[in-house]
Amino acid sequence: MVKKTLISRAVLLFVTAIFTAPGYTSENNQPWQVCARSDVKALRFITVGEATLSRHKCQTSNLQNPPMRLSFRYFREVPGDAFAKAALNFLEKNLSKADFERYKARFKQFNNHYQDIGDGDVYTLTYRPNSLTLALNNTLLATETGDDFARNYLRIWFGETPYSRPLKENLLQR
C-alpha cells in the first residue's frame, strides 16, 4: 500500500511538472502542437540536435506569429558561450546596423543566460504576444518584453541570413 501511494505521488508530481513547465501551455491552457521538425547541424553536415516549431494550432498563414515555440534538443555537449556568440553574430547579419545597435545590449543580456549543455538537454524559446522567454529543460532562464525584440531575435533562424537555410525552410515548411 505504501509503495502504491509513493508511485501515485511520483506520477502526480511528474504530470504536474510537465503541465506547469514554462512554455508547455498558454494562458488558456492550450497544449503545444509540433508543426515542423528539422535537424540542427554544425558546419552544415554534423547533426548536433533536432529543432521543432510548435504552435497551439499549426494551420495558420504565418507560423512565426505568436504564440509560437522553438525547441532545440541537443545530442552532444555545447558550451553556453558558443550559443551566445553565434546568436550575436547572426543577429548582426540579419538586422540593419541601427536596429542591431539599438538592441545590442538587450541581446547580450538575454544571451548571458545560455548555459553549457549536454546530450538530451532542450532549449526552448517561447514567443507570446509582447514577450520572448528562454528555458533550459523547462527551467525559465530569461524573459524579454516587446514584439520587436522577439521578432528580431528570431531572425537568427528565420532571417535573410539564417543560422541554417535548410533548418529555416524545414521549420517554415517551404
Structural write-up:
The chain has 174 residues and is an alpha+beta fold. The protein has six helices and six strands. A hairpin with a 3-residue loop joins strand 1 (33-42) and strand 2 (46-55). The protein is globular and about 35 Å long. The model is unreliable at 2-26 (pLDDT under 50).
Key features?
174 residues, alpha+beta, Chalcone isomerase, six-stranded antiparallel beta sheet, 6 strands, disordered N terminus
Radius of gyration from CA coordinates = 17 Å
Q: How would a crystallographer describe the biggest sheet?
A: 6 strands, antiparallel
Order of helices and strands: HEEEHHEEEHHH
Q: How many E strands?
A: 6
Q: Strand pairing plus helix content: what structural class?
A: alpha+beta
Q: Write down the overall mean pLDDT.
A: 85
Strand order of the largest sheet: 1-2-3-4-5-6
Low-confidence stretches: 2-26
CATH class call: Alpha Beta
Alpha-carbon distance between the two ends: 55 Å
Number of domains: 1
The residue fraction in helices comes out at: 25-40%
Could you please say which CATH topology applies here? Answer: Chalcone isomerase
Q: How big a fraction of the residues is strand?
A: 25-35%
Total number of helices: 6
CATH architecture grouping? 3-Layer(bba) Sandwich
- The geometry reads as globular
